[in-house]
Amino acid sequence: MMLNCIKESFSLTNKYIIIATPLILFSLLSSLYILFSIGGSLVSLVVAGILFVLMLGAFLSGWFFMIKTCIIEEREDANSLIKEFAGGVGEYFLPTLGLIFVTFIVSLLLLIVAYWAGMKYIGNIGISADALSKAMESVNALKTFLSSLSEEQLFKLNAWNFLLFGTMAVTYFVIMLYSPVMFFKEKNPLKAYFFSLKDLFGRKFFKNLMLYLLLFVSYFILSVFTTIFGMNIIMHFLFTLINFYYLVYAAILVFYYYYSNFIRIGGNLDERV
């Protein structure tokens, strides 16, 4: 079943590659928006942050709806799928804002727990924020900074990095099925997240974990190659396109996996929770 999901998701991605268009446009516009929003007073930054969240909500609601539509509807004209974007914004904009808020709260809570655990079991590294900021200015500055640390500080720094990496991995896992649940089963953000946890840790837990590990490892490998070959302008452009393709494929894979395993049962649609 997992192999079939992988193959079918590739087929859908290649057929409905038009789904990449909103993603590319949003990435470009949001990058420009953030660039021009940097600086200014605290009030202007808060307003800019709120507007960005609204932009993100509009994008995700339309984009996820396109993905849902391509999975449940067969279309001869694949490019006509772009017309569903506006309908998705109209139907799912407010629920998607709720999804963003719940995701932020869950991420924040996990980060707080990780910070508490780190302070209790690892301890303070003894590095000032100013010194850490200066170390990130260049590769040479980072090397000098690391060489100045004691063995105990290096051990604690590695432990903190491992803890934060693990926290990030857990966070991605517990929200993996959140979006498909909202777009296939339940629009209420709180109920949708509860149902996503129920499905995630239910009888198909190990299958869900397999999907997550597939996505996590594949993205890690892609990130390594992007970092290694990204210095060359041509390779940077090529890997940028590959990353966009991968993001579209990953989203379709998660939605198709959820649809196949939790919605479509025996050829019929099961909308029970």
Question: What's the arrangement of strands in the largest beta sheet?
Answer: 1-2
Largest sheet: 2 strands, antiparallel
Helix and strand composition category = mainly alpha
H and E order: HHHHHHHHHHHEE
DSSP E strands, number: 2
- Give the DSSP E fraction (strand runs of 2 or more residues): under 5%
Whole-number mean pLDDT: 89
Low-confidence sequence ranges: 266-273
Walk me through this protein's architecture.
It contains 11 helices and 2 strands; from the N terminus they run H-H-H-H-H-H-H-H-H-H-H-E-E. The protein has helices spanning 2-15, 20-37, 42-72, 84-121, 129-135, 139-147, 151-174, 178-184, 189-200, 205-229, 233-263; strands at 264-265, 268-269. The relative contact order is 0.12. The two termini are 21 Å apart. The radius of gyration is 21 Å and the shape is globular. Helix 3 (42-72) crosses helix 11, helix 5 crosses helix 6 and helix 8 (178-184) packs across helix 11 (233-263). It has a two-stranded antiparallel ribbon. The chain has 273 residues and is mostly helical.
